[in-house]
Specification:
Helices cover 80% and strands 1% of the residues. It is mostly helical and 340 residues long. Strand 1 and strand 2 form a beta hairpin. Helix 5 packs antiparallel against helix 10 and helix 10 packs antiparallel against helix 11. The radius of gyration is 19 Å and the shape is globular. The chain starts with a helix and ends in an 8-residue tail after the last helix.
Length: 340
């Protein structure tokens, strides 16, 4: 795990502070950046999101789908948690906290935005960072790749309907055209481009050539993430400075969701006698989020300065320390699982 991944929350916090400061000092520049959009897609943010997402999509190997029948228990746990539990539990927690527990602390219209952001986080299972978590727990790398590839294939078809249903159930309007456009722009197109680039690079020089290219792309991905955070908090700065407590409030349901989902998946793997090198990654992939997609879709659906976009970025801030604590727990409990 490199320095960037290990200290991701620190870099995100620094980008938040920088974004808020720049937003207050240079409001005109941020207004101009916000104006570069079409059909609710902001072009500067779209470029940054693609910089984040494309290297991750290049890591997906759909040829591994032929191995989905091997060791099915871990994959079944991951799929059940990711697509039948996690989106709905996140929506339920959002409604519980922002319409009831925190109802006296925030305006109702803001509460709906935060719920929407949480729904987007819950419906987007992790694509890239799970490889880091798997490595730190000595997980089976090939099996982790199978899990990610299957989840990405499902996400192409399931993300938009699940988000639309949950937004509707929570009485939030569903702009179908924008939602479908977002899935096409931030899932289908980068996935297709990633698969094509992967195939081209493998044809040119095999796996070593691909890994060298991805290592060169990594700084671009980092710039994309931090640039997006700076922009978002540049737009959100005034709201946050007037009510800094909102960051803490948004973090509460995310923290509860993360630890509860991990406990469910990890406990199921232990009860089903899944080997630890599969059990740990299958629980961690369900706990982690594809926050890049959640951020992009929140911006497209609700705008750069929306509460939904803010909630998804808070998810970035919370995720790394939470996941590192779960990695440590998984490693400490390795002896409770079989080794093969």
């Amino acid at each position: 795990m490199g320095k960037f991944e290990r200290y991701l929350s620190l870099w995100v916090a620094a980008a938040i502070a920088l974004g808020i400061g720049l937003g207050q000092m240079l409001p005109g520049i941020f207004r101009d950046l916000a104006s570069f959009e079409y059909a609710n897609v902001n072009f500067p943010v779209a470029v940054l999101i693609w910089a984040m997402v494309l290297p991750m999509m290049m890591g997906v190997d759909f040829s591994t789908l032929k191995d989905v029948g091997k060791k099915p228990k871990g994959l079944m746990i991951t799929l059940i948690v990711n697509w039948f539990v996690k989106p709905f539990s996140m929506a339920a927690l959002g409604v519980l906290f922002f319409r009831y527990v925190f109802a006296d602390l925030i305006p109702a219209e803001n509460a709906n935005q935060y719920i929407a952001g949480l729904i987007l986080l819950g419906a987007a299972p992790c694509t890239a960072m799970v490889f880091v978590w798997s490595q730190l727990t000595r997980g089976d790398p090939n099996y982790t790749l199978v899990q990610v590839s299957v989840n990405d294939a499902i996400m192409v078809f399931a993300f938009a309907p699940i988000v639309a249903v949950l937004l509707g159930v929570t009485e939030l309007s569903v702009p179908w055209e924008t939602l479908i456009l977002s899935v096409g722009l931030y899932v289908l197109l980068p996935l297709a481009a990633g698969v094509a680039l992967r195939s081209f690079l493998l044809g040119r020089g095999g796996e070593p050539h691909l890994h060298r290219f991805l290592s060169h792309m990594k700084p671009l991905s980092i710039i994309g993430l931090l640039g997006t955070v700076i922009l978002l908090f540049g737009f959100q700065g005034r709201v946050i400075l007037s009510d800094p407590l909102i960051i803490v409030l948004i973090s509460v349901p995310i923290l509860i969701q993360s630890y509860a989902i991990f406990a469910l998946a990890y406990g199921a793997a232990w009860a089903w006698k899944v080997p630890h090198n599969i059990a740990a990654p299958c629980a961690l992939i369900g706990t982690s989020n594809f926050f890049e997609l959640a951020v992009a879709v929140a911006i497209s659906l609700f705008g750069l300065n929306s509460g939904a976009a803010l909630a998804t970025v808070v998810g970035v801030l919370v995720e790394v320390p939470v996941m590192l604590s779960l990695v440590a727990f998984a490693n400490q409990t390795r002896g409770n699982f079989s080794s093969d």
